[in-house]
Amino acid sequence: MQIPEIPNLIHYAIPFFTVTVILEVILSVKIKLHDYEFKDAGTSIVMGLGNVAIGLITKGIALGFFYLLYNFGIYLKSLLRGGLG
């Protein structure tokens, strides 16, 4: 049984999201809507970047942990068996 290949939908969502945000800013400035605050957009962007940064940091910590486990786990295993002999 083969598993069907599912496309990564985020590749389609990012351009759509970018275009809609730019369209929102253009229409807000052109129509001079006072409901739109650039602080809201800035906050959303900073929160998105913070989410990416936290993801990178936690993946780096996990990678470091598994690196140490891989390199020193064999050494510790052989020590528990009675030495490196």
Model description:
The chain has 85 residues and is mainly α. It has helices at residues 10-31, 38-81. The protein is built from 2 helices and no strands. The longest helix has 44 residues, at 38-81. It is elongated and about 80 Å long.
Count of DSSP H/I helices: 2
Q: Secondary-structure element order, as H and E?
A: HH
Strand percentage, roughly?
under 5%
Specify the overall morphology.
elongated
Q: Which structural class fits the helix and strand makeup?
A: mainly alpha
How do the helices and strands line up, and which of them pair or pack?
Elements lengths: L9 H22 L6 H44 L4
At a glance:
By secondary structure, the protein is mostly helical. The protein contains two helices and no strands. The radius of gyration is 24 Å and the shape is elongated.
List descriptors.
mainly alpha; 85 residues; 78% helix
